[in-house]
Automatic annotation (TrEMBL), chains A, D:
Lineage start: Bacteria, Pseudomonadati, Thermodesulfobacteriota, Desulfuromonadia, Desulfuromonadales
GO molecular function: oxidoreductase activity
Protein name per UniProt: Nitrogenase iron-molybdenum cofactor biosynthesis protein NifE
NCBIfam families linked to this entry: nifE
Domain Nitrogenase/oxidoreductase component per the UniProt entry, residue ranges: 38-434
InterPro entries membership: Nase/OxRdtase_comp1, NifE, NifE-like
TrEMBL record, chains B, C:
Role noted for this protein: This protein may play a role in the biosynthesis of the prosthetic group of nitrogenase (FeMo cofactor).
Pfam families recorded: Oxidored_nitro (PF00148)
Domain Nitrogenase/oxidoreductase component: 20-420
GO MF terms, alphabetically ordered: nitrogenase activity
Keyword tags: Nitrogen fixation
Superkingdom assignment: Bacteria
Organism of derivation: Geothermobacter hydrogeniphilus
Listed pathway(s): Cofactor biosynthesis; Fe-Mo cofactor biosynthesis
GO biological process, one term: protein-containing complex assembly
Protein name: Nitrogenase iron-molybdenum cofactor biosynthesis protein NifN
């Protein structure tokens, strides 16, 4: 029996309300006109944060060689942090011709002998999928031999996008880990955090608040996660999907199999963080908890406002243009508004219908939803008198030409912008951008061009 | 010289240094002006590569993918996705060249690249660079060879003032520029193939395009055949020089394993003096040689008591180990990403084709590491000094301007390394 | 611009940044070819100075002492020990010039330097540089002024191609060289006074002498009077320019507070374009400007979140603070060794004439330090990042080659500083 | 009453057997032909290692500004290490005209308020000595006010050489500190280490051996020293002068005043370290101690030999030329011989008669004592076929021209060469020099010079 999930089923995921109109785009990237990661990358993203597990990439060197140590997914795991290591079978021509299975088996044995992880994820990749290496069998055998879970992850790059890969990663966890262990204790307020990868420590911006409220995070997929916890995830009372549409099918299945309801929310910006906490409390259905949460939210918002005070003057009357994609389209917009900036436009070219609706909601009628941001943003900066452009690196030149401040929304972040406290980090970075003289200065014409 | 361990006895790479062949190809195409590197494979390879180089160079990187998918993977044979890619690329931009290079996926499938390319109605150079063979260095070298084979027009006459420089993959943009400058000071017109010194050197251009900006032009490549002299740097570039020489029987070729340190720099100058009949160099070159001599002396005491691990590509190791050795540095271990004939010539006590786990296992053999940013965690954990060199370096900005070559770069490199060594000793005392 | 605190409310220096006036004079004389700096005072001042510079430059430093002693201190009036010194120096070497400069001892006694010098039968320039006045920067500047006053022949005609550069004390040898190079690219014949770029740049000379080797020659100094243009860099050098202009009514003068960062570099180029009527610069200069622009952008995110303490001489602070500011660096505190009119123009939140104890007291105002090696203990204790600049730097080799100036040096400086800032943040996170 | 010592008396120090012939040279440096530090520097050297005391330099900025943090004199003092700080009154023209006394008083108060040292040394310098600031009075007053010893040090630069300054420093300590406190306990084996400044931790290379032998270091002048210890130094049974001729008058006076005998020795090289330990044991006059010492010395020598084995091959048949001054003339020579190198010549130009006699003793009849090393060394390298030149930086060029290895004996050292273990450091450094290809390589002619 193969553990390969049915890709088509995942693409047709019924829980995705805008899916119908976008299926084609999701499905087939256009040759020569595609950006973004592949399914393998997506699968890694969703599973990699388990620092107590080894992540073994069965493929040639490109897949891991270029990507290890790229994601700052933080962990409290006291053992060696395996997310900061790279394991790959680095298959050679010989393996391609004669199969890489033997090498894979040996690689697993090697990892067990040297690093003793609590589980091993084995990722198939384009080449090893094509040559038909049977990672299901090898994982089954390995699990028996070594007495720990070994999870085959069937997300070779060619099956599709990063987004799809994340779903495939989730499926693998569901199929091989969830429900294989019972928790020592349970509480009425046990939740799973799904799709929170704790990048730059985002999760830690709100997790202490959950603790304060008596809400226990039973398991995460997969930020600061532990294998033994995700194995017990079926005993949670609620699945909380954090800013990750892609895992909707996973939670649907968990609902079907274990009766766990789910909610989807964001912890980005003040309002969404508050809403998110309240949504969890309400979903857990305890009036006392809801009351406590309201109190906490009020306290935290007041505390945040106090700490944002020094920034108010900097942001007052400042207008921003936002050019990004996906849920950032509205989540960053919301956070900017929370800081007191006016968001005059946001790009929705690479956003889903749901995201666009949300963007409209946050920006109001006056706000511009840009369908062709590359062309529109320069014009809008002039028209609206914007002071700040938030976009990817290529748009830097637009900001310089207009002499306004720029913030790279794709810049590899080292600090978290999540939760209440993260908003302070965002405030600090945006203040630094607005006050930075570099954008005006660098636009000086050379003396010989005058 | 060194004790070389070529054969890996491990069934896997743990914390790899090795980078893939298609990535080397991408970088090589980035040294051709207004080129669009097109990686043939699933979209992820391209995405990883783009992010990798964007972070290393702090520059937008031009690259596209044929985005081979599941369904097509079995049926297509490559033709469709390549032709579609070219069409889609040309809708948005007008590249002077499309640089088609493969990954493992189409190679496993057995795509007929040559066949597809021969039917392309667009300037296109193709190269087979499966990632289950070779590595970063060979991907670059194969691409350079393909550019020559497929573009350079055969010629019968030579222009003695024209010189072709073939740099290996690990030479930084500024290093290529500095080699060109030195050679130019002898009156040559120098063309580097590929030429990152004008494309990925980190300069603010007039406007951004989706293509590489700077580098050697396609027209220039086509006309390389009448150059009087060819200089290749790095073992990996010998083959490119060979195919270039086949374009014109009148060309002459000189090879340098590397250009680091006093002796290697002297050899290049010696050659140029001999070729031109000049009897001297510019005062600036003369001065920098004296400064390198002084740097060797100023750093020798510190380096003489420092045991060093150098990590990188074979051609990079050759130069770096040699200059360190010359100033007294004790290169006890060199970890090479892949095998190469260069390895035998490396000035190190021990050379190992391996990964950073191997380096970690040998932790008590060295005090200081010269290597890429993956070595940072290692250096931190083991309390070693670290000089960041090679791909990737995501920890620092300004990578394209790191110059370790010839007299000037050598002086700065030795000073930097000696300073890191002292800083490290100061900490551990 | 900045809030400037000039008046020291402390009765002492604790961990001083300040260096003495005679030391500045010694260094200035070291920029004159085959000069023997002769420090007039007790032998210790000379010994300290010699060791200080030897360690900073990793070069033997030529200097002699009049070795004033107890008995003589009261009786002599300076004449005897100076005359004896000249005699003894000439027994062993044949300097082209003796550079006589005082310390506090003979100044307290009231030695008549001018009187003694007027009777010397040897080329000698004298300058009063008591160490209880001024500091390092003024010692250098006074010496430069003395060299002009006492050596330069008045002239009536000007050579429009001849340009005199007057650099302040904190410009490194390579920095002076790079300014000269840029100006030379406009066709000028540039003479720097003093010129460390050819004496203390760290080169292995043919043989060692007890004299300075390299630097501007005495003959060249004598003939400076017919230069068409004078460029002074640093507030401290204004006075030197003034006295030089008195030698020839036809000379023209341009002053630059500093040459760090895009704007200052542009101003110099602008001036040179205007003076020559050139309508462009060399491709190299053009390229480095684009690289500096890119470096500003690449480093702005890191520097924009970094609060910086800069420590040094006033003219050094002016340039360093400005380039950091331009790339977004938040120079919250600049600690100056001494007072200067320059201080008002410094791009920092707060400027303080002070010492490292003052810097330590303000520890929570900054994350990163740019300063001399005395800052190392501070940085270590307070867990701050450190970029080593200024005198002394005994922790590192290669000081003469540190270039923070103009387009190229600016790019490297910003990259280095941003990298140190990130490294520091990586540690403290 | 002034605490100024009589310089002439010090210069005429009877305990210096070679003094008669060298008086003139010691006394008056030749203008324009003098190298070496002044009395102020010497005084600092001898007193500075007290890390629990503040060292306040009363003078213009040259004296301290150029010299602080130049000496790596190590300490175990758990408080803030005041040897790594610089204090100076930085006198200005105003002070020169109107006296710097008020400033000095305030400076002392400032130091007491901010750093609470256990003592303050106040160093006069040329300018403040000339303007007649009364540091004796100010120190007396300060000591009364603050209740700790304040020691005026009268060693302005113009009184003479570094060597003389060290004596003056010693005198100051003797006059103001020694005998002002009684030790809590005494032992029959209490010694003072005089002239050991623990530079690079030299003292720590043998101090543990003294501990093992039951010899107690009561006080040091001044390596890793404490003020309270030096105040008790008059109760020692023996003064041990370590490689420091200059302090002979101090120990003579301590003999006269307190009846403490003294011996002079070196802990440089194997033989001298052994001799030194035995000399101390013998001087303490206890047969048991002597026997224990012999045993320890034998053990340590054997242990050292074992650890030197890997170096034997490197040094076998290697010849060295040594060009340095003072006691290094013979002490380094001895250490080199201990390592198995042949010392074919040593410079004695800047050595005392005593040093020359010792050099001859170590080098034997075949060895050359160079009176004009600048000229002789190049010739001797050729004649003797030397492999290594040990000299100051300026001689590097000689080594390069001859294509032999070079070691800078004046190079600021960061590690200790003292005692048995230090010899291993020396061995390592010399091995590195001999194996370093740089000396041959750097001599390559430029291609355009061929």
């Amino acid at each position: 029996m193969s553990s390969k999930p049915k890709i088509k089923d995942l693409l047709d995921e019924s829980a995705c309300e805008y899916n119908k109109t976008k299926k084609q785009a999701c499905n087939a990237p256009r040759p020569g006109a595609t950006t973004g990661g592949c399914a393998f990358e997506g699968a890694q993203i969703s599973l990699f944060p388990y620092a107590d597990a080894a992540h073994l990439v069965h493929g040639p060197i490109t897949c891991l060689g270029s990507s290890w140590e790229t994601r700052a997914t933080k962990t409290t795991w006291p053992g060696r942090d395996l997310t900061r290591m790279g394991f790959t079978t680095d298959v050679s021509l010989n393996d391609v011709i004669f199969s890489g299975e033997e090498k894979l088996v040996k690689a697993i044995d090697y990892i067990m002998a040297h690093y003793a992880p609590t589980a091993v994820f084995v990722y198939s990749t384009c080449v090893t999928a094509m040559i038909g290496d049977d990672i299901d069998f090898i994982c089954r055998q390995g699990a028996e031999k070594h007495g720990i879970p070994m999870v085959p992850v069937h997300a070779p790059g060619f099956v599709g996008s990063k987004n799809l890969g994340s779903r495939l990663g989730g499926e693998a966890a569901l199929q091989h880990l969830v429900g294989t262990l019972e928790p020592e204790t349970t509480t009425p307020f046990d939740i799973n955090l799904i799709g929170e990868y704790n990048v730059t420590g985002d999760m830690w911006q709100y997790r202490h608040l959950l603790d304060k409220l008596g809400i226990r995070v039973l398991a995460t997929l997969s930020g600061d996660g532990r294998i033994k916890d995700i194995r017990c995830a079926h005993r949670a009372k609620l699945n909380v999907i954090v800013c990750a549409k892609s895992l909707v099918s996973l939670t649907r299945k968990m609902h079907e199999q274990y009766g766990i309801p789910s909610i989807s929310l964001s912890f980005y910006g003040k309002r969404d963080t508050s809403k998110g906490l309240l949504a969890i409390a309400r979903a857990l259905g305890d009036p006392g908890l809801v009351a406590r949460t309201k109190k906490l939210v009020a306290y935290e918002e007041a505390r945040l406002e106090e700490r944002l005070k020094p920034y108010r003057d900097v942001f007052a009357d400042k207008k921003a243009v936002l050019n990004t994609g996906g849920n950032k389209t509205w989540s960053i917009a919301a956070a900017l508004q929370d800081l007191g900036l006016e968001v005059v436009a946001t790009a929705v070219k690479k956003a889903t219908g749901d995201d666009r609706a949300r963007a409209r909601e946050y920006l109001g009628e006056k706000g511009v939803l840009m369908m062709n941001p590359g062309v529109e943003q320069a014009r809008l900066i002039d028209e609206k008198g914007a002071h700040l452009l938030l976009a990817g690196g290529r748009s830097l030149y637009t900001a310089i030409k207009k002499g306004i401040a720029f913030a790279d929304v794709n810049q590899e972040k080292k600090k978290s912008y999540g939760g209440y406290d993260g908003l302070l980090n965002l405030a600090e970075d945006l203040k630094n951008a607005l006050e930075n003289p570099v954008f005006k200065l660098v636009a000086r014409r050379a003396p010989w061009q005058k | 010289m060194a004790e070389v361990t070529r054969k890996r006895d491990k069934p896997l790479q743990v914390n790899p240094v090795k980078l893939s062949q298609p990535m080397g190809a991408t970088l090589a195409f980035s040294g051709v002006d207004r080129c669009m590197p097109l990686m043939h494979g699933a979209q992820g390879c391209t995405s990883f590569t783009k992010v990798f180089f964007t972070r290393h160079f702090c520059e937008p990187i031009a690259i596209q993918t044929t985005a081979v998918t599941d369904a097509l993977a079995v049926l297509d044979g490559g033709g469709y996705s390549i032709v579609e890619s070219v069409k889609n690329i040309c809708k948005k931009t007008s590249p002077s060249l499309i640089g088609l290079h493969t990954t493992g996926l189409p190679e496993t499938r057995g795509d007929d690249l040559r066949g597809v390319a021969s039917k392309a109605d667009f300037p296109l150079v193709y190269v087979n660079t499966p990632d289950y063979e070779g590595g970063f260095e060979s991907g670059w070298a194969l691409t350079c060879k393909a550019l020559i084979e497929q573009l350079v027009a055969p010629a019968a006459t030579v222009n003695d003032n024209k010189l072709v420089l073939l740099p290996h993959v690990s030479l930084t943009p500024i290093e290529v520029e500095r080699i060109k400058e030195l050679i130019e000071s002898f009156g040559f017109n120098v063309l580097a193939l590929p030429d990152l010194s004008t494309s990925l050197d980190g300069h603010l251009g007039e406007k951004q395009t989706a293509l590489s900006s700077g580098g050697i032009s396609v027209e220039e490549i086509k006309a390389l055949g009448n150059a009087g002299l060819v200089i290749s740097v790095g073992e990996s570039m010998r083959e490119s020089a060979k195919v270039l020489l086949q374009k014109n029987a009148g060309m002459r070729h000189h090879h340098f394993s590397h250009l680091q340190g006093l002796e290697a720099s002297d050899s290049l100058v010696e050659l140029l003096l001999a070729e031109t009949g000049f009897n001297g160099v510019t005062p600036k070159v003369e001065r920098w040689r004296q400064r390198l001599q002084d740097a060797m002396l100023d750093s020798h005491f510190s380096l003489g008591q420092t045991r060093i691990l150098v990590v990188g590509e074979p051609d990079q190791l050759a130069g770096t180990c040699r200059i360190l050795h010359d100033a007294g540095g004790r290169v006890t271990l060199a970890v090479s990403s892949v095998d190469s004939p260069q390895l035998e010539k490396i000035w190190a006590k021990r050379v190992l084709v391996g990964d950073l786990e191997d380096a970690e296992a040998a932790a008590d053999e060295y005090d200081l590491i010269v290597g890429n940013c993956h070595c940072k965690a290692l250096a931190h954990r083991l309390r070693k000094g670290l000089v960041l060199r090679g791909f990737p370096n995501w920890e620092e900005v300004g990578n394209p301007l790191k110059n370790d070559l010839l007299y000037e770069g050598g002086a700065y490199f030795l000073y930097e390394t000696a300073n890191v060594a002292e800083e490290m000793r100061g900490k551990t005392v």
